[in-house]
Amino acid sequence: MDHDSPEGASGSYNDRQSVQVDNAIRAIQQKKPRPEIDFTIHVMEDGSQVSTQERVCKGMVPRYPTPRRYMRLSKIRERGGYNVFRG
């Protein structure tokens, strides 16, 4: 019996390949539909729901660094200074 050929192993190569193809076809045919997920709604820790399309804290205005400030902060960070980019 030649162990290097697929036919020499227990169960032929074609039988195993046929089982794999049958399993793949069955998995595709019996595939469950995707759940409907609304990514525009987020559930907070307290159970309340908020829209991801609106600001939760309406009084807060995002602060974006000016190009000059961004470059200065980047240089500080490159030198191993404090991490200004973490919240």
Q: In words, what does this structure look like?
A:
With 87 residues, the chain is mainly α. The chain has a domain at 41-78. Helices cover 33% and strands 7% of the residues. The chain has 2 helices and 2 strands; from the N terminus they run αββα. It has helices spanning 13-29, 67-78, and strands spanning 41-43, 49-51. Strands 1-2 form a two-stranded antiparallel ribbon.
Which secondary-structure class do the elements indicate? Answer: mainly alpha
Q: How would you describe the shape?
A: elongated
Q: Considering DSSP H and I runs of 4 or more, what fraction of the residues is helical?
A: 25-40%
List the total number of helices. Answer: 2
Read across the widest sheet, the strand sequence of neighbours is 1-2
Oligomer: single chain
Largest sheet properties = 2 strands, antiparallel
Defining traits:
87 residues; mainly alpha; two-stranded antiparallel sheet; 2 strands; 33% helix; elongated
Topology:
Layout: H1 13-29, E1 41-43, E2 49-51, H2 67-78
Antiparallel strand pairs: 1-2
